[in-house]
Amino acid sequence: ARINIPEIIYGEYKTADQTMEMAEAFLSKHSQVLISRSSCHKEIINHFSGQYKIEETPNLLAIGERPPERGNVLVISAGAADHPVTAECALALKALGVKPHVFEDRGIAHPTRVLDAVIEGMKQNVSAVVVVAGMEGALAPFVSSLVPLPVIGVPTSVGYGFRAKEAALTSMLASCAPNLTVVNIDGGIRAAVVSGLIAKNQ
Amino acid sequence: ARINIPEIIYGEYKTADQTMEMAEAFLSKHSQVLISRSSCHKEIINHFSGQYKIEETPNLLAIGERPPERGNVLVISAGAADHPVTAECALALKALGVKPHVFEDRGIAHPTRVLDAVIEGMKQNVSAVVVVAGMEGALAPFVSSLVPLPVIGVPTSVGYGFRAKEAALTSMLASCAPNLTVVNIDGGIRAAVVSGLIAKNQ
Amino acid sequence: ARINIPEIIYGEYKTADQTMEMAEAFLSKHSQVLISRSSCHKEIINHFSGQYKIEETPNLLAIGERPPERGNVLVISAGAADHPVTAECALALKALGVKPHVFEDRGIAHPTRVLDAVIEGMKQNVSAVVVVAGMEGALAPFVSSLVPLPVIGVPTSVGYGFRAKEAALTSMLASCAPNLTVVNIDGGIRAAVVSGLIAKNQ
Amino acid sequence: ARINIPEIIYGEYKTADQTMEMAEAFLSKHSQVLISRSSCHKEIINHFSGQYKIEETPNLLAIGERPPERGNVLVISAGAADHPVTAECALALKALGVKPHVFEDRGIAHPTRVLDAVIEGMKQNVSAVVVVAGMEGALAPFVSSLVPLPVIGVPTSVGYGFRAKEAALTSMLASCAPNLTVVNIDGGIRAAVVSGLIAKNQ
Amino acid sequence: ARINIPEIIYGEYKTADQTMEMAEAFLSKHSQVLISRSSCHKEIINHFSGQYKIEETPNLLAIGERPPERGNVLVISAGAADHPVTAECALALKALGVKPHVFEDRGIAHPTRVLDAVIEGMKQNVSAVVVVAGMEGALAPFVSSLVPLPVIGVPTSVGYGFRAKEAALTSMLASCAPNLTVVNIDGGIRAAVVSGLIAKNQ
Amino acid sequence: ARINIPEIIYGEYKTADQTMEMAEAFLSKHSQVLISRSSCHKEIINHFSGQYKIEETPNLLAIGERPPERGNVLVISAGAADHPVTAECALALKALGVKPHVFEDRGIAHPTRVLDAVIEGMKQNVSAVVVVAGMEGALAPFVSSLVPLPVIGVPTSVGYGFRAKEAALTSMLASCAPNLTVVNIDGGIRAAVVSGLIAKNQ
Amino acid sequence: ARINIPEIIYGEYKTADQTMEMAEAFLSKHSQVLISRSSCHKEIINHFSGQYKIEETPNLLAIGERPPERGNVLVISAGAADHPVTAECALALKALGVKPHVFEDRGIAHPTRVLDAVIEGMKQNVSAVVVVAGMEGALAPFVSSLVPLPVIGVPTSVGYGFRAKEAALTSMLASCAPNLTVVNIDGGIRAAVVSGLIAKNQ
Amino acid sequence: ARINIPEIIYGEYKTADQTMEMAEAFLSKHSQVLISRSSCHKEIINHFSGQYKIEETPNLLAIGERPPERGNVLVISAGAADHPVTAECALALKALGVKPHVFEDRGIAHPTRVLDAVIEGMKQNVSAVVVVAGMEGALAPFVSSLVPLPVIGVPTSVGYGFRAKEAALTSMLASCAPNLTVVNIDGGIRAAVVSGLIAKNQ
Ligand SMILES: Nc1ncnc2c1ncn2[C@@H]1O[C@H](COP(=O)(O)O)[C@@H](O)[C@H]1O
Ligand SMILES: Nc1ncnc2c1ncn2[C@@H]1O[C@H](COP(=O)(O)O)[C@@H](O)[C@H]1O
Ligand SMILES: Nc1ncnc2c1ncn2[C@@H]1O[C@H](COP(=O)(O)O)[C@@H](O)[C@H]1O
Ligand SMILES: Nc1ncnc2c1ncn2[C@@H]1O[C@H](COP(=O)(O)O)[C@@H](O)[C@H]1O
Ligand SMILES: [Mg+2]
Ligand SMILES: [Mg+2]
Ligand SMILES: [Mg+2]
Ligand SMILES: [Mg+2]
Ligand SMILES: [Mg+2]
Ligand SMILES: [Mg+2]
Ligand SMILES: [Mg+2]
Ligand SMILES: [Mg+2]
What we know:
2 domains; binds magnesium ion; homooctamer; 7 helices
């Protein structure tokens, strides 16, 4: 029913059997299904691997055929610890048929490395930017100040100490960057859907 | 420097004089300036009204010439109490040169009124949807399930009792709608900039 | 002493032996006992299975004879992940002698599926509605707007990210639906007792 | 549309004019309207007093004709400071056509005074109990242990110090009383609608 | 140095060796030492059991000779789940040389059982009352209203759902019982020291 | 009913008339009444001043005859800003018939001034110590380490910035001082009742 | 007693008379006194202005003679709204005898303006950097990445919406900048004392 | 690029291979690298131990050659449970080429032991003081009142019960000690870098 958005199964709390049954039901009607936050990757991959093309990141499985590629999104992440969320976002963009241009380990501690990523990305004619960052999340407002595009911030649960899991979210919401919008903590897939819709519709 | 985004002065905590001085500096270089959350509307309007076109909502002043109109955004709000934020969003969209299609008082208590607004809005060829809602903010995930577009939720500080000012934000962040992204509480202007950039670039 | 409410043992933090001793004491005086949130289902079932009728869900055991059936309650849940709480609620209703009419996987992402459940349920002459939902919990105010009955919302701890375990509770409390009341997070048994008393007394 | 529930205008954030316009619209189609949390009682009363029957409590106005009386609810409150919420609940019950039996100043500090209220109330053949209490809210679980009926707890914002406005809510949600359900802080009107629907349908 | 209070080693985060070394140092100078929240009971008991009298509860070890008995304290707890904290409090009282009079499983759901405990306890000429309770903690203000003595509330981390670990603390602090004072969550030992000092000095 | 504790009217949220009516009722049966947190001191003093002895502090009125003096309590406060709470505590002690020995402005910044107060106080044969402190509340654990007596900490709402109103409470609860117990923020009267009961019963 | 740190009176909650009496006592022994967060500037200035040199910012009064100047500190602030805290910090540095080099309105939205301030400041041979910033506080980690010096972050209470007053603090604490340390929200004076001691001792 | 600060790899969330690869890259350009919060100490030590000097504490690895020693810092910790953070701080200071003077188990319960540490430390000509403390963290303001130096407080996550992991942080931020600044919870390494830069630059 939701045009342009692939079917997504929320895998957490579900058994392998429940998940595979739902996935099969979707695949009988659609060419592709995504499974997020499942703890049963192995069983699911075994089950579908003969029949369908499967791609995997720690938090996401994409099963089936992708739509033809159209549109570009820039994805910048702060550190290696954010990789699972960054990879989830990139894979979900590909599943939407949008090309992600990914630059990792671009924390605000090295401003010139951030700039390089932005310049390189802008050359790819991207329609939106996704910033994945934990800890104080300062990368998101910094990047937002550099691009004339909608920025989707993905705060991650990376960090320790005071409000460790909420610091990046807090800081991205409180930011004065007017072109910065935010999704839930570790919400790589939501950032992909929003930025992907922007890029595809363009 | 930030192409496509009008200059915005954050008016809170500033005196009328500070604000007007900054506004004049911007207007000497740009054709337009926005002033948000100022408590000195009267003085500022008096000061600039002869010279410039001014438009006002409770939280926002737009001073100067707008860019030519290009692109459309659908704005749906839950209740009359959300009006100041809705109006701020609509005016900021106009200031960006984007046409807002506004439907107010469309709370989830009357699902058919929500549907009417979505159908009417989709006919206008909008590129994004802004949902303004307080209390439990359930309108945002509901609208998101109905449109194949990026949705920007603006939680408002309307409500009373438990986490009165944070309930809508919490609920929009926690939502399972994959095309829903969120800005800060009462952040009408940020929703306008993000949705406006989407609409203009299309 | 509490007429109309079966004896409930709070199983968490108790050993199998403590729990079974208490259960036996109750069963020597009453025809039925419920054991909630125990981690010793196996031992308890082994112990009582010859002697008593036992029914089990992940969070609840019902041991003994039920009262004659009287009254109907509609139970709607948002997703598969809410199943343990939904099942606890349904079993507790049965233990009270009330007939639950259960519709699962009726998230707000598919409004027509919600409507179907409400219409089907209303045909069963129900006296109250229980809504079980996690994440943003928007299902509860939505259902409340559709029925002229008391609605008991059960927020579940399903979700991730910001206030993952409290989002549904926050949103149900903040709701403007006047016929919606709330129990503790994952409180399926309390929703059953409240809705069951309503249905039985009718 | 919502059978059995009177129309309620949420008065906070609305001007007298907005409120009266909405009230008139409702009164042209329904025999009664409620206005909650308005700060414009005087203007509204002046406007409608010739034409309609009006009843007032600090947080609520009831304008128009009530339905015929049917059903009884017991309302117990902890202290004098809870009076505005207690009165709002009682008036809303009357507006629904349900008879409230109100006992105030029955804090847990005087258990025998609580017992007297419960005994006296039970004689009136009530179908539900509303408990209004601030501070630690211990009255709600105490009353719940004494009655074989659904209890609707209304935590009030009365108190000072640590989590002053949330202590009663926290304690009512965490309670192990299985027949206790809860509404938002100061939600007298919601408790009235829920308990009133229970009483009317019986 | 602290007269009247036995030496207490905080066992959490310490290895068995660190703990035993410290315990030996104290025992070379004092007749008794307490070890709280250690996860190395077995090693410690093995090490000292030949040489010293040892008493154990899940959260506390008392090693060495007690002072002569003097003074009485009433200890009432709400449920079986509170037992570890109740036992810790009782053992620490004995270590101080004070006699605890313990009544468990006296939740507010059964007011007469609470009354029995209070009446029985008051006959023992107690100088203070300790109330151990989790969930909504309503037992503490209820008992406080019944006794003309200082009451020390020990909120426990027993419960689930909203603010599960803090509900009893919140409610005891917010209480209007003027003779109720509070210690940290699960702080059985602190309640013992405070009530024990009261009883001993009398 | 509550032997040894004077009647206390909670004055907040009550009108002068309500308060005076309650006070008169109490005074017709008891020799004394306390009124806490009232905003109507003037009217109340005018009303009762001819007939009764009245003593006043910013947060408390004591009206009527005190019991004969018996017992001593040491009261130490950190700073001048804590004075209203300190004065409330001292007056309530006097109303109980207990002699307070008060030392103010003894913040931890001047450890020798703290020591002086403790030494001086201990000479008065006190049975308990009340410590009144805001900001980080470090005075309470420091004093607790110096006295072999029960200490009642009264965290005040003095301070600014992060958790300004809760810092002292947090720190007193978390303290490792075993003889330290805590009352609600600004709860001077509760500290007086608890410490007063200790002193009187001795 | 505290060498190198001027006496500071915490003015909040104190009357003009209390404050002036304390100030006079200090001035009779020391050459200078600071008064922070007082609401009685006018009376205090009137009282002392003939006799002493007085300097004023919205949150701070410095009365008396400064020590000879020694050492330099760089002070960078994000926006005009942070001015009161920035000015408090600068005045306190001067009172310590340290020279502040102040650059305001250097938000992260304009990275080159931040860089200019850092380069200009570093030329002044500063020993430490103070960063004053509200909202998301991203300026602090950004500056920290640019200087080989201790940085003291002062989060301000500037902002609106989610955790408006705590966002900058949260983000500065969570930051991965190893040379960044933090003081309380709006703690301009503490940043001055810490950075001033660093500069003076060098 | 960051002069005077050794390269630090944030080891949490990283595999041994990722970590070692990054460490090698740094060691090819710098003489030393630090690895914090890694869970792969064994593999990393095996890998580098032949080639480089390695020093280890539970939370930190220092690999390579240290700069020549210059400057002194006093490190005081409250209890044995704080040892891992204290050791991390001391090792990081050594890695910076600064000499730490460490005094452990100096809780506020024994004020004379605190004093001894301060006196002994001050003899070493230290330039700054680091205070490591959990629970109520009262040691930090106490030490701050005794030294005319910048103090860096490191709140630890040691404690249990109410806000167990945040109590020390809350209390250090709220403190009225003007020379006290704070780092994130368990942030031993940040305290080392800040105090080390102070000591080295002196
Ligand atoms: N990681 C995720 N975060 C948020 N929403 C999700 C996620 N994965 C799936 N969903 C949404 O959850 C719903 C599917 O839930 P279910 O029917 O339980 O599989 C759909 O609306 C999905 O778009
Ligand atoms: N005090 C109240 N608490 C909760 N909901 C309310 C209250 N007053 C009105 N409402 C609901 O708020 C909605 C009216 O919003 P509005 O259209 O802004 O007047 C209706 O759904 C009412 O049932
Ligand atoms: N899952 C549950 N949630 C809330 N209360 C419960 C639950 N299970 C049992 N109880 C209540 O807990 C009390 C039993 O406690 P206990 O005596 O410890 O078994 C009774 O009042 C029950 O009604
Ligand atoms: N400042 C106070 N803090 C806590 N409890 C109080 C206070 N003042 C009065 N009370 C208690 O509140 C109850 C009186 O409530 P009320 O009947 O509303 O006057 C009695 O139980 C008093 O002991
Ligand atoms: Mg990096
Ligand atoms: Mg409406
Ligand atoms: Mg579903
Ligand atoms: Mg009362
Ligand atoms: Mg029980
Ligand atoms: Mg002082
Ligand atoms: Mg600026
Ligand atoms: Mg120690």
